[in-house]
Amino acid sequence: MYRAAAATLLFASLVLGQQVGTNTPEKHPSMPIEVCTAPGSCTKENTEVVLDANWRWTHVTTGYTNCYTGSSWNATACPDGETCAANCAIDGADYEKTYGITTPSSGALKLKFVTKNDNGQNVGSRVYLMASADKYRMFNLLNKEFTFDVDVSNLPCGLNGAVYFSEMDEDGGLSRFSGNKAGAKYGTGYCDSQCPQDIKFINGAANVEGWGGDSGDSGAGKYGTCCAEMDIWEANMDATAYTPHVCSVNEQTRCEGADCGAGDDRYSSLCDKDGCDFNSFRLGNQEFYGPEKTVDTTKPFTIVTQFVTDDGTDTGTLKSINRFYVQDGKVIPNSQVVVEGVDPVNNISDEFCTQQKTAFGDNNYFGTLGGMAAMGKSLEKMVLVLSVWDDHAVSMNWLDSNFPNDADPSKPGVSRGRCDPEAGLPAKVEAAHPDASVIYSNIKLGAINSTFAAN
């Protein structure tokens, strides 16, 4: 929900292009996963991760001149979208030195929030899981469970360590769009349910038309890039939510105008930006998640998410999204809802979403665009995204504080966490917590009840 796209997180010279430069070799960090058929019966896959193209240095193909600086396009190189795509190249990434992305052990990925480097600093990052050097690892999640370990003990209020799936193209749009010469190998083709308009290249062309920016490094163009999204994990050490978001389109799709859902057009968008979220704090259990709570965020734990179909098959209709945790060898069921008008369930279903939206006075755009059945169709072909970010739009208040800010916190659904509403102001959190980080590890996919063990 309310995800600020990458442009607000970059330092001035890191932008997206579509040709391939040769100044820095691209070497994807290794991050193997396991696929399981039964408890203890798992097979290792030698997967790796790739940095999103929006974070990369982009320069003219004939030299080192930036194609984008601050919040402005290079008018000579980029008079229009197609010409810009032909003139501009993206380079390989120095993952550790420039972006603070490291692999502390096999199957583990650490994302540092702020990294000082030769060009100034980098803020946040987003990577995708690769099956090979030039293809994203595609996931079919129906009738499966997805499990990983996380350490958010160094991730304070106002930040978001996010693990989610987006309905991106396997090759990053390389085959669909002739202007894209870089493809998945260089992290192209991003989309999500917010239909972000600050992605600089969409469908193989620069998002130059109508581009406007501030004095920093953010901006937005005429077009956005939309697709369904399943937020497995959006969290810091004080708050968490998991949220399906559906769309009326079934692949990465460029939007413009009302279809992008900006401002008052939010519920005219191609996608459901709100989603149907399960946030334990928002749903009435304020002692379930956090430091020294039931799920103790001062130490690592395992997150298990199950995608249950109506007939128990891989081709059935998505019925519910179940969640539980494992910590210190103990299985911890997800918290139950404690909100008047909502059944005391601990998972996401169409019934839960309808009741929650009514109780909170929210627009059930999730149901309007097809609800769980639509989400299930999108879950057949998803790309895994891992990131850490701060929120230039609403300071992460939708996750860990009161939102909307001017609403009465005692009103059902307004209070989402214990955090100070100002804790997530980008300038404040970047200055106060530059060394913040999140560690993801031990990713597993498998049959229901196959990916975890407990004492």
UniProtKB/TrEMBL annotation:
<dbReference type="InterPro" id="IPR037019">
    <property type="entry name" value="Glyco_hydro_7_sf"/>
</dbReference>
<keyword id="KW-0325">Glycoprotein</keyword>
<dbReference type="InterPro" id="IPR001722">
    <property type="entry name" value="Glyco_hydro_7"/>
</dbReference>
<protein>
    <recommendedName>
        <fullName>Glucanase</fullName>
        <ecNumber>3.2.1.-</ecNumber>
    </recommendedName>
</protein>
<dbReference type="InterPro" id="IPR013320">
    <property type="entry name" value="ConA-like_dom_sf"/>
</dbReference>
<keyword id="KW-0136">Cellulose degradation</keyword>
<comment type="similarity">
    <text>Belongs to the glycosyl hydrolase 7 (cellulase C) family.</text>
</comment>
<dbReference type="GO" id="GO:0030245">
    <property type="term" value="P:cellulose catabolic process"/>
</dbReference>
<keyword id="KW-0378">Hydrolase</keyword>
<feature type="region of interest" description="Disordered">
    <location>
        <begin position="402"/>
        <end position="422"/>
    </location>
</feature>
<dbReference type="Pfam" id="PF00840">
    <property type="entry name" value="Glyco_hydro_7"/>
</dbReference>
<dbReference type="GO" id="GO:0016162">
    <property type="term" value="F:cellulose 1,4-beta-cellobiosidase activity"/>
</dbReference>
<keyword id="KW-0624">Polysaccharide degradation</keyword>
<keyword id="KW-0732">Signal</keyword>
<keyword id="KW-0326">Glycosidase</keyword>
<dbReference type="GO" id="GO:0008810">
    <property type="term" value="F:cellulase activity"/>
</dbReference>
<keyword id="KW-0119">Carbohydrate metabolism</keyword>
<feature type="signal peptide">
    <location>
        <begin position="1"/>
        <end position="17"/>
    </location>
</feature>
